[in-house]
Amino acid sequence: MRTFLRFAILLTGLSAFAQIPAGYYNAATGTGYTLKTQLYNIIKNHTVKSYNMLYTCYQTSDRDYFYENDGTILDIYSEKPNGPDSYTYSATNTGDRCGNYNSEGDCFNREHLMPQSVFNEDSPMVSDPHHILPTDGKVNGMRSNYAFGVVNNPTWTSTNGSKLGNNSTAGYSGIVFEPINEFKGDVARCLLYFAVRYQNTVGGYSHAMLNGTSDQVFSNWFLNILLTWHQQDPVSAREIARNNAIYAYQNNRNPFIDHPEYACMIWSAACALGNEEFAMDKISVHPNPSNDGRFYITSEIALDAIEIYNVNGQVIRNIEKPVFENDTFTVSDLPSGFYLVRASLDNKSTTKKLIVN
């Protein structure tokens, strides 16, 4: 699902792989909703900026250095990961901002993945870029304030394949919007962030995606979709870069980009509801960081392949049908650097970050 060649980025974008600030998550020691509250206390009280300042944030947080690599706005509703985009928007040209629009390609605006109507356009939710992305105005309008979901029979499809139609999973049959596979995990992690950052108010919000509580936050049907998307579409270089840029902009981070494992540590019951994708969480990479170029992959399940990518997105190791001894596979002789280790089985995969000092 995830195209790893996207990790080739400009040298100026290498800050995407900067490390989490030392001690940032030291207080995140619990599990379940206790961990959720600990994360809330870490990421709350960010520097609140105006709604119009989002366009300034996007100049550093949402530039395309991962697909066309042309510095234009990276719009998840327009981006075609495997080919040239139908249209592009400048991050600095105010004429590319909506405004009025009639069709796709006219302009881009600010898409609240959690609709503004849910929180009555209140601050700081209304201007928090962790859940507000630049997107094509027309597609944003078609999404409206519908929930996200899974569409089998679309009534409308955007030029990059995003779909509008009735939800096809159990528990909800209303109209939903489904982004393309490339960005499903991105959407999920933005909404998981929202659930944590605004847990002090989210219990009072009403929407099909929400269950009216401040602990689980999401409706059962939607939580299952979110956690599936989060697992099937791992954290990308684009998300890491965006997280770092927003941290520089407003001084808080998305915990589910820095620590994807937090999702199942918080919502463990939903992760265990027969969703075999989460069996991939039984894989670990250690020691991390590694100080001698050697590390170990521990897995309770057999794997089809292990792939190791360097910071430029190049596959430097491709191990088919790795043979484990006592549930452990050893990798050695890696030079110093930042790596992504991808373990796959059937159509499932999980990706771990690795540092070699």
Automatic annotation (TrEMBL):
Gene Ontology terms, MF aspect: endonuclease activity; hydrolase activity
InterPro entries registered for this protein in UniProt: Endonuclease-I, His-Me_finger_sf, Secre_tail
Start and end residues of each Secretion system C-terminal sorting domain: 285-356
Residues in the signal sequence: 1-18
Keywords: Endonuclease, Hydrolase, Nuclease, Signal
Source species, domain of life: Bacteria
Annotated family: Belongs to the EndA/NucM nuclease family.
Name this protein carries in UniProt: Endonuclease
Organism annotation: Flavobacterium agri
